[in-house]
Amino acid sequence: MADTAISATIQVALETVISLSADRVSLVLGFREELKRICNTAETIRGILAHADGKMHIPGMKNWLKQLEGELFEVENVLDELNYETLRREVKYRNKLKKKVCFFFSYFNTIGSRSRLASKIREINRNLERINQEANNFGVVSQFHIEASLPAASGATASRQTDSIRVPNVGRVDDESKIVDMLSSPSEKVLSVIPITGPGGLGKTTLAKSVYNNPKIDGHFGQKIWVCVAKEHIKIMELFKLILVQLTREEVKVDNREVIVKEIGEKLKGKKYFLVLDDVWNHDQGLWSDYFNTLMGLNETKGSWCLLTTRLKPVADVVCTHLKMNSGPYFLGKLSGDECWSIIKGKVMSAGEEVPEELEALKKQILGRCDGLPLAASLIGGLLLNNRREKWHSIVQESLLDECQSEIDQILKVSFDHLSPASVKKCFAYCSIFPKDTELKQDLLIELWMAEGFVQPDRQNQRLMEEIGGDYLRILLQNSLLEKVEEYWRTYYKMHDLVHDFAKSILNPKGSSQDGYLALDSSKGLAENTTRTIPASIHTLFLHLEGGVSTDMLLRFKCLHVLRLYGDDVKFLPSSIGKLLHLRLLDISYSGIRSLPESLCKLYNLQTLTMRDYALEGGFPKRMSDLISLRHLNYYHDDAKLKMPAQMGRLTCLQTLRFFNVSQEKGRGIEELGTLKYLKGSLEIRNLGLVKGKEAAKQAKLFEKPDLSRLVFKWESGDRESDNRDEDVLEGLQPHPNLQRLEIRYFMGNKFPQWFMNLSKLETLRIRKCKRCSELPSLGQLPSLKILYLEGLDNIRFIGDEFYGITANEEEEEEEGRSRASGSISRRRKFFPALEVLYVEYMENLVEWKDADQVRSTVADVFPMLRNLSIEGCPQLTALPCSCKILDVGNCGNLTSIKMGYGTASIEQLSIGYCDNLRELPDLDLFGSSLQHLTIVGCPRLISLGVNGQKCPLPCLVKLSIVECDGLTAISDKMFQSCRSLRSLSVECCPNLVSFSLNLQETPSLERFILDNCPKLIPHSFKGFAFATSLRELRINSPFSSDDSSVDDFDWSGLRSASTLRELRLRGLPHTESLPHQLQYLTTLTSLTLHNFGGIRVLPDWIGNLVSLETLELWDCDKLQSLPPEAAMRRLTKLTCVDVLDCPLLRQRYTPQRGIYLEEEISSDPASSESEEEESTTMN
């Protein structure tokens, strides 16, 4: 393993040497010939390495590799030093520090310096040529073809052979059944394929064996063939020979294709056959096209199948595409924890034997280690079987990995050996520098790979290094060496624990002459003297120090390419940072550093600088524009007054710049953005009021930046004079059509530019606080727009045709459409064809919005994909424009009714809040079976809900909440007929509600029922608690405010039968003198709250019957003086919290540890004060 890793390291180093020696350092006078010799020798050695992997057993070969690695390390440093000086000369030339610049470096102005470097380079050449000559001793010859330098993967996989003998197939019964059904179904194709794909160790081969040996298969096929491929660069003749061997059971001695394929044809003639190709790696389309075309030509009988297993999705895609399969690859997922546990139990125990306690105690740790991989489960189970039970715990804790890693390593090594180019191997190993389970971000990984030289510039200068790094990442994903995790708001990558261990063994191999990478990370930090043991040759250092970083410490690591500093104790970056000439990535985002030294600007090789957002207190260093190689400035600050580095336009490699504050100072104007042609991702441009006009704005050349995906344009906030300059500036800021997200803030023009209509890829648009804007842009024709925010547009009074993008000609067509409705169908257009979310907020003067139904009824479909509509703070609006799946309306004071037109039957969530003049809702019948959530808050003039004399079927309603509707008098009981999906019902603060009844037999799924501050309701309106088989929480804080007879009328017997009830909250009146005695039978309660039972003096003994009680809350019980007796309280063995609030006469308190005690004892007993404080924290 170490030899393979070293070989990959050497190949990457050779690529770096060749790149540096052939690049601009070759311009240095006096060194051209020597550099050319280095380049030529490196090319020769690179060819030699193509044969070296197969000759590791030759004595001296490993030592040769070690010598070569050490020499290449020295070459890299020297050439990188030359490269640094090239960059320094460029900076000095550009800064015009000298009137006359000679074509050599100031660094070489002294004879001694020139002589020293010249001597080093000559010595390097001699050593490399000697190493090259020594290769002849091992019988290794050079190949100059670049691809030949990659390690031959076929040898690594040739040793892995599989057979068709069936083995136990735990956890894959469903997969087996699905595939067998597919194979057994009639097919009109001569040959079909099912590629099973997934990471190594998932059991693809085991599944294929189970399918191959399934008895149902035998009756469908006249011939079964099992072929283990297990080679990457397999040739078609090898594949045909493998088939023929299986058909004849004899060695194939001929090499004539014609003879071989004809014999295969004879054996398969007239038969349907089932062919398994196991462990396939080659995704060459030409190979598979030739292979399958030949097989189909040999035997035209319909219904044959090929089952193929592969780790690589490209292989699966190629074979599916060629055979025109509609179903696509069969992706094999991980096993569940229970399935892995079954494998382990099957290994460790006999059939019927109970799980030993020792094994059960380790279950969580073991399953975490397996992570759904059946191979891992099998290996761990085997390891435990072969050791005594008393050793199991220590094995899992200490030696589990070492014992079972060998077989998993074999699987992983196959994937590793197939990685190409060699740089991908280094990228893979480098991922293990992070702790296990780290969520790896794509940009950070690629930036680190570039800094280490694993990703080299494109020789033809057609692709950025970041693009090449993205390809490398995809290769690792395709080989299942990294896992991609996609969540709603982010995407990251993870490495399985077992893969991480394997990668770690490669990162700094034992046989290597260099320790290149080290992460010293501790939550407590490390003392600086710990760093003295770190090799000075280290390339990557992740360091968490306590006490800061000293000048001397940094100077010990002059070879660093990557430095990440952690810890709030690290508050200053020493000026010696400028001496790290090779540094390419500096990350101080997890430190306490708040300022950057000026010497940082001497890091001419620096590609990535990452700081904690908002951290800089003194601004950027003055000479930051000297960082000529900077590609990524990962820093954000929302202060528009923060000065940008002067002359940022000189950073022509810059790709990541999250914000730019325009200034009137020289070198800080918007024109600095013009030369930054590689900018990508997100950019926020502020202080646009300082830009003088359209021509000045055009100098930013945003239209020429296709990789910018998000732009934010911000003018200064607050009232400003309105003139045409804002409009001119925005016109000049026209972005590239590739833009996906755009936000505009504080723009004070009257209208928006026409270039909005050209943003064909725009997905999100936010227009915020543009107070003088009187016309909205025409957005209805944007094909990709999914999310639209309109906020604080105070001057917009009417939204009409211009918003939809309807022209005058189309208006005429509308008139014609009304008279010729049948003829208009073919000409119907779509406005906002992709819009899913529409937010309209705080548009105080918006009076009218052209109804979507008006447009829809003529020549167009409007908002066909709209899912979420939110209208907030539009007090003048009297009608809604449309409906959708999720409708949220709030603070629209003039809205009197919710008009529902087209699409009403598809509404799933309706939320209405604080619409003071809303008097009615649409008939609930209109919602059909779609409505799931209905929330009404703060609508004082709403009188009734669902009262229309008819049944209101809402079979899908899950949640109903009605709050603070002062005028509401009636809720129809018809709303709840057959409302079998309702899970949450809340009616609160409706003081005039008198008509509302509920039979819980109609709502069997109800889990939460809250009735609070509705004093005019009576408790016998609610029946059927015995049928509430899902009820867990009940809060009835109103019915018990009447006389005692109304309490007795409540359905206590039904409630007693509600075995699922866990939380109960009751509210009484100040004169209530006793608790409802029926409470004592609710023995399943875990939480009981008694609120405002003002006449109660003593809690009854039967409280002790509530044996499941965990929490007891007593609030606003003015006369309560005593808890139940100690004996009753002691029966509450699960009680952990007694919360007393505003019960002035109750001095007793209770904890399980002390029982009942007086409140004063907490402070009067000093010895117990500390423990009481801890108890109080726990109990409350």
TrEMBL record:
InterPro entries noted in UniProt: Apaf_helical, LRR_dom_sf, LRR_R13L1-DRL21, NB-ARC, P-loop_NTPase, Rx_N, WH-like_DNA-bd_sf, WHD_DRP
Family named by the database record: Belongs to the disease resistance NB-LRR family.
Residues covered by the Disease resistance N-terminal domain: 10-96
Alphabetically ordered keywords of this record: ATP-binding, Leucine-rich repeat, Nucleotide-binding, Plant defense, Repeat
R13L1/DRL21-like LRR repeat region domain mapped to chain residues: 670-792, 1077-1137
Highest taxon, organism lineage: Eukaryota
PANTHER family: DISEASE RESISTANCE PROTEIN RGA4, PLANT BROAD-SPECTRUM MILDEW RESISTANCE PROTEIN RPW8
Domain Disease resistance protein winged helix: residue ranges: 433-503
Domain NB-ARC per the UniProt entry, residue ranges: 178-351
Extent of Acidic residues compositional bias: 1170-1180
Species for this entry: Coffea arabica (Arabian coffee)
Classification via Pfam families: LRR_R13L1-DRL21, NB-ARC, Rx_N, WHD_DRP
Annotated region (Disordered), positions in chain: 1159-1180
Protein name as catalogued: Disease resistance protein RGA4
